[in-house]
Amino acid sequence: MCISSPKTETGRAILGWWCIDSRLIMEPMIPDGYYTSKKSDDICPDVCGAETSNSSLSMSRLRCIFRWLDMKTFVFVFIIVPVCMVGVYLHGQKVTYFLRPLWQSPPVPFIEIPHYYHENMTMENLCKLHGWGIREFPRRVYDAVLFNNEVDMLAIRWKELYPHVTQFVLLESNSTFTALPKPYFFAISRDQFKFVEPRLTYGTIGGRFRKGENPFIEEAYQRVALDQLLQIAGIEDDDLLIMSDVDEIPSRHTINLLRWCDDTPQILHLQLRNYLYSYEFHFNSKSWRASVHRYQKGKTRYAHYRQTNYLLSDSGWHCSFCFRHISDFTFKMKAYSHTDRVRFSHFLDPRRIQDIICRGADLYDMLPEEYTFKDIIKRLGPIPHSYSGIHLPAHLLENADKYKYLLPGNCRREG
């Protein structure tokens, strides 16, 4: 709309003619008709000042504004909004993980215990180096695991620990944590493990098969059942109990140290070297969930979370997604507790999985789970290749032909 100045020359010189769009603005004007304001009508400059009636001028201006809004609205609704929605759908998880340092603080640091070992040192000297005493006889050791389908990794684990374990305890379900039915894989492959039969306590449990339930509930249910199986196996107070997943393998000399040394912590987490897909991709040494407990009846519960602040440095290996067959990768991606990470069906494409294995990239196209921007940026991109085969599990190296796919330089998988 337009506002006219008074009819006198002085009035017109002071106020002038002004055109406004959505705000009523009146500004002074210097003599000779020059405006001090740079504001102009940027919507319909030809409407103001036109020789039309007030009503027709208002209608023209209204039509002009609606025409301008229509174009802006069209761009916003049909271009900007869909692009933003697609971006959030495809990359929302990445944004959340990248911003994690803003909404989550890092956990309390562990009290890291230095770890000493040399094959030519006596156990008495090794215990002394750690600040512990030496026992007259070693503690009994129980190694307890929940089993899914990691047959090769179980063989490597049990061969590594065999000299020092009193009883191997294994529980297997016919259900995954995500309520998918599965065979009893260990029962099918049991002939491969005859070397542990005299020391094996094996149990099975039926799945609850509750679709849509939080997978961690089923996982907790199976861990409670493993507590009961340990009682059947005959565990007693002050026995050592290893709590870890099958692919979290303590080194042989670590367990021997803890069974011979006295005055060790009641609960001790084990720092393991983290590998992905094989022992070619070593990305850090921050794995800590494996733990060793001096068993206390009625108090010790089988768990896979942080239970103490004590961490024994460099105590073994954690090889995640270290499978022989591509089908094993797809099975685990659909079966374990973090199944929500399979956001798109093409994540399960065998050709994609094989390509990712050889590049050392992330199966779920996720950013690293870190608590500082520095650590996130440091770990961006594929894991660098490592060609070191030093200090790996003995059974793995003794049977290199059988486990070739786990060694550096052999990323191709069967199937």
Protein model, in words:
It is a single chain. This protein has twelve helices and 16 strands. With 415 residues, the protein is of the alpha/beta class. Strands 3-15-11-14-8-5-6-7 form an eight-stranded mixed β-sheet, with helices on both faces. Strands 9-16-12-13 form a four-stranded mixed β-sheet. Strands 1-2 form a two-stranded antiparallel sheet. Strand 6, helix 6 and strand 7 (200-205) form a beta-alpha-beta unit. The radius of gyration is 34 Å and the shape is elongated. The chain starts with a strand and ends in a 17-residue tail after the last helix.
Radius of gyration: 34 Å
- DSSP helical segment count: 12
The biggest sheet, with number of strands, parallel, antiparallel or mixed sense and barrel status, is:
8 strands, mixed
Order of the strands making up the biggest sheet: 3-15-11-14-8-5-6-7
* Multimerization state: single chain
Order of helices and strands: EHEHHEHEEHEHEHEEHEEEEEEEHHHH
In percent, how helical is the residue content? 25-40%
Distance between the termini: 75 Å
Transmembrane segments: 73-92
Keywords: Membrane, Transmembrane, Transmembrane helix
Protein name: Beta-1,4-mannosyl-glycoprotein 4-beta-N-acetylglucosaminyltransferase
InterPro entries: Glyco_trans_17
Structural key phrases:
disordered N terminus, Beta-1,4-mannosyl-glycoprotein 4-beta-N-acetylglucosaminyltransferase, Glyco_trans_17, alpha/beta, elongated, 12 helices, transmembrane helix, 415 residues, eight-stranded mixed beta sheet
Give the helix/strand layout.
Layout: E1 2-3, H1 9-15, E2 18-19, H2 54-98, H3 100-103, E3 111-113, H4 123-129, E4 133-134, E5 141-147, H5 151-161, E6 167-173, H6 185-188, E7 200-205, H7 215-233, E8 240-243, E9 248-250, H8 252-260, E10 261-262, E11 267-270, E12 272-276, E13 282-287, E14 291-294, E15 310-312, E16 316-320, H9 326-335, H10 350-359, H11 373-378, H12 394-398
Parallel strand pairs: 3-15, 5-6, 5-8, 6-7, 11-15, 12-16
Antiparallel strand pairs: 1-2, 4-10, 8-14, 9-16, 11-14, 12-13
